[in-house]
TrEMBL record:
Species: Nothobranchius kuhntae
Keyword set includes Transcription: yes
One GO process term, biological-process aspect: positive regulation of rRNA processing
Protein name in the entry: WD repeat domain 75
Compositional bias per record (Acidic residues), positions renumbered to this chain: 612-627
Keywords for the protein's UniProt record, in alphabetical order: Nucleus, Repeat, Ribosome biogenesis, rRNA processing, Transcription, WD repeat
Gene name of the record: WDR75
Amino acid sequence: MVEYGEIRVVYRGGSKINFRKPVISNDSRFLLCASGESVKVFSSVTEECVHELRGHTGQVTGVLLRPSNHLQVYSCSTDGTVRLWDFTDGILVKTYVVGYPVYSIYASLNHKDVIFIVTPVQSDKRTELFQLVAVNLPQTPDQLVEARDLSAVLSDVSSNPSTIAFGRGGEYLASVNNLKMEIYFFKKNKSYSFSLKEYTKNGGKNTFTCVACHPKDDCVATGHDDGKIRLWRNFKQKKEYTYSTLHWHHSAVSSLCFTPEGTNLLSGGVESVLVQWRYNQENQKDFLPRLGAAITHVTVSPDGALFCTSHSDNKITIIQSCVKVSAVIQGLVKGENVTTGLLVDPRSKALVLNGRPGHLQFYSLQRDKLLFHLDIVQQEYIHEAGLEQFEVVRAAFDASGLWLATVEERKQKSAELELNLKLWSFDEQTQSFVLNTTVSAPHEARITAMCFSQAADSQTTTLVSASRDGHFKAWQLGLPAHTDDEGPSWSCDFVGAYHGLVPRCCCFSADGSLLAVGFQEVVTVWNPTSWELLTTLSQPPGDVRNLCFGQLSCSKYLLGSNNKKMSSVAIKELLQTPAHVLPATSFLCSMFAKSLLISVTETREENKHVDEEMESEKEEEDSDEEVETKISRPEQEAKAVQGGESTAPTLTKTQVRELRRFWDVAGRRPPSLLERFCTISGVGISPEKLQE
């Protein structure tokens, strides 16, 4: 008996750590960042996650150090709450219920017991319209507090936290959105707005992307879509404002940040370069290049000792005063396409999939941390639109995790597909994989599947690759041909095919004694020792998509799936029925499996019915033959001559019956096939008559 149980989540990881700007503690020991529905606290030295602050039920949209207590932080979420944490001990101090989704959070020393949040405008049905509101935090000992005393500050603001900044400790704030900047003065309770034209004279876009305020001077820095940075001054009087322009970035400026003393301005963008501008000496600037991916956020520690950049590849880089990188906190890299699928490294139990361009990433779900990136392509990636570069499209491990096979391809315009098959061996010293063999053009077309022989005690290691060129190839690890060679390498041992069909998938049995290869709708089973085709298995309509042998006591079974869509009314009705009114899943699965089986009784009855039909047809044939003997050939010829032209012989009932059977088969093909049959055989009967 099989005991059924509920599916439970064992590990969960891989959330974004670059979604919002990270925060560095006052002593520069800890780094905090939003990660899914929690806040992660990392050590800035060891890169390890020391605490995970859990409690929110929605996406965490902001993290902010509490101005009055440097050991506490606020976090806001789309669940409509703001939570106060003691991040050194990982303890929840208080929960403030706002009642509306919160998309960003701000605070200043000038506003005690008040925070500023961005929420949707409730009177407007559009989700694009947001407002900045002030929230008075009640001072009560309760842990759960209602904080619904809200007052509007600015309307029509952006939900991006990088577009709002406080200046001079909270005397004023600057907000940018699209082509407009608005500066609000708290004491005057008055705001000034400044607008730009959409395009410059050179065709650059003036759209605002981010803003930062100088901590001591009345200066506001804004980033723009065309890569320019503007420094705004004299904005306390709207008609007297001035601005100067800085330009180094060739694309949009994603983030700006002043250092605590205001001596430097930091900027970042898609160039993967951190730029440090000297304040009031903007011609002097320093660069920290090759940070690996586009910069999305820039922040500075309160003491100015550490800089921090977030990147588009879900990475946070900790930098010592724009001099050198001191630590890298890497999250799960989520590319556009996971062409390799999800793999598990048998040795480290790490999740393996596409990472940075041309790389495989090894991610530990237990530790929720990236272990390392393996450079497969081993070429510098060039950030240029439309440039075709090598991509990792396939990967497979052997049972022990000591061998890794990868496939990289590149398709350029008006050029043939470039393919490379690479075999990697695990190095115990470096605890990583080292390239062993490279096979250029292993197939003539794209590789569709790869698999290793799963037998851990096998004397030989075998890899099978299948391709759209209609062949599968077996690669074996052989000993070096000469004693001077460095070690064993891989070579092709066998090339197989089946009636010109395209192989889509392949799989070895648990003991390595069988190899199953799916050729479109046919499954072939081979002997890997002699490479003899043992048998073929028919598959229902649709190409075989996946094959898998069972394990342990189920090793005698071969499971397969195809890409044929099920056109069944019962299944559609089943999927559309609410889950709470359906019976147990185990009951439905057993019924569905039984419905796919063919009853032995029905098969016997069908065979019996066919036998009865054949006996009846035989009796009719005997009767027709007796009638035909009574008509002589001369009489038939005379009738033909009287018509003035030769006519085809008259069909008997048996012949008509046989032609009807043929029509049932040939009628599914083009009509010309049946017409040719009637013409060649000399039968004087039309296809239309057969249909009657």
